[in-house]
Specification:
- This protein has 164 residues and is an alpha/beta fold.
- The chain has one domain: 3-Layer(aba) Sandwich (Rossmann fold).
- The protein is built from five helices and seven strands.
- The protein has a seven-stranded mixed sheet, with helices on both faces.
- A hairpin with a 2-residue loop joins β3 and β4.
- Bound molecules: guanosine-5'-diphosphate and magnesium ion.
- It comes from Pontibacter arcticus.
- GTPase that plays an essential role in the late steps of ribosome biogenesis.
- Associates with the 50S ribosomal subunit.
- This is GTPase Der.
- Belongs to the TRAFAC class TrmE-Era-EngA-EngB-Septin-like GTPase superfamily. EngA (Der) GTPase family.
Length: 164
């Protein structure tokens, strides 16, 4: 199997920060053609002897938090068709937003395993403030992580690589 993990979610939740952490120092393969907006990055990572590819989606709206239904559909469609496991990232600092709900509505089409990753849980207190995201109704469990300091990412990867 190809062992592909896709990271999806609205702008600024921390997708690229997690991507960079998961692919470590390995060089990401970017598919940016000149003059074309980069819409995804691929990188390679390893956890406990399992090798995988990570897709960072959502470069559609550079430097902007404006994102539209078409872009959400495009991002999620990519994840659903290409990935074996989907990480749906939300932001515990910002809390649950309407855009998160729009992503969840599209993600419900997927039969692939989905994990809700509650990012920016930089402290233990923050890691316990994730209950509101169960309302999204996708995924089975919520994994609080900090892409910035790495906390929680090991527990998440332990679960994810079980699919590989
Ligand atoms: P993306 O748009 O989803 O790819 O988000 P980015 O990875 O570009 O991150 C958006 C902002 O959130 C940046 O300023 C990051 O430094 C910040 N950020 C990402 N992960 C964390 C985290 O775990 N904790 C905190 N406090 N900030 C984070
Ligand atoms: Mg990004």
């Amino acid at each position: 199997s190809s062992n592909i993990i896709a990271i999806v979610g609205r702008p600024n939740v921390g997708k690229s920060t997690l991507f960079n952490r998961l692919v470590g120092s390995r060089k990401a393969i970017m598919d940016n053609e000149s003059g074309v907006t980069r819409d995804r990055s691929y990188g390679h990572g390893e956890w406990c002897g399992k090798f995988f590819t990570v897709i960072d989606t959502g470069g559609y709206v550079h430097g902007s938090s404006d994102i539209f239904e078409e872009e959400i559909n495009k991002q999620v469609e990519l994840a659903i068709t290409e990935a074996d496991v989907i990480l749906f990232m939300v932001d515990v600092d910002a809390g649950l937003t309407g855009l998160d709900e729009e992503f969840a509505a599209v993600l419900r089409r997927s039969k692939k395993p989905i994990y809700i990753v509650a990012n920016k849980a930089d402290t233990h207190a923050r890691a316990h403030q994730t209950g509101e995201f169960y309302a999204l109704g996708v995924g089975e469990e919520i994994y609080p992580i900090s892409s910035q300091n790495g906390s929680g990412t090991g527990d998440l990867l332990d679960e994810v690589v079980k699919h590989f």
